[in-house]
TrEMBL record:
Organism field: Kribbella yunnanensis
Matching InterPro entries: Metallo-B-lactamas (IPR001279), RibonucZ/Hydroxyglut_hydro (IPR036866), UPF0173_UPF0282_UlaG_hydrolase (IPR050114)
Domain Metallo-beta-lactamase, chain residue ranges per copy: 18-205
Official protein name in the record: MBL fold metallo-hydrolase
Amino acid sequence: MRITWWGHATTTIDADGTRLLTDPVLTSRIAHLRRRRGPAPTPEAGHCDAVLVSHMHADHLHLTSLPLVARDAALVVPRGAARLIHHDYGAAFSDRCIEVAPGHQIRIGSLDITVITAHHDGRRLPWSSYKGPAVGYRVDSAPSVWFAGDTDLYDDLAAEAGPVDVALVPVGGWGPNLGPGHLNPARAAEAVQRVGASVAVPVHFGTFWPIGFDRVRPEMFLAPGDQFRAAMAQLDPAVQVNLLVPGESTEVAG
């Protein structure tokens, strides 16, 4: 398996001849946020068999990035998101949508995918009536992968997502404060331990920052990656932490 981190929550999972793209943000700006680390992903990032969208927030369901994705890729989205996509792009995009909710199982190419609960606000927000569940995804391959989306810890996490080999786990955010429904580095390490992963790739940090906030709490920008690695080493030193930079890939054996 080859995993590429393009920044924020955007990753490519390339396994068994199938390519999955998570929460694609393929541009250098999201509304008031700008990419401050690494260039925008190369066109290669859009080459995939399916997109996995975790929830409708604009930094995860980034409508501007959808035209940069392969035209024949399925769009796996939380229930209710197809209507939002249809509003902006019409049937050419909404007809490609597969709407899901926690507990659903689908097959993309050679991969079986289970939709996992995420404890996070799934509404589009702000100033929008579109809403649906926030989800994560478990990809059953060799190795298996849990893509968390945005979530906090919850009681049934281990039972729903684990045991799994690789965790793509969020460890930060995009602003000077980390609100509810997110994992900080210490809670992210606990999440990895709960799902039984032997390899962890921290994501959702050190990519986007609000315009004009360059000097506001810079420790919230890059530090979460190293903080997660330290927290993981203290909690379970057997877990291999692959700390990537945007555009970098890692290979994980089955």
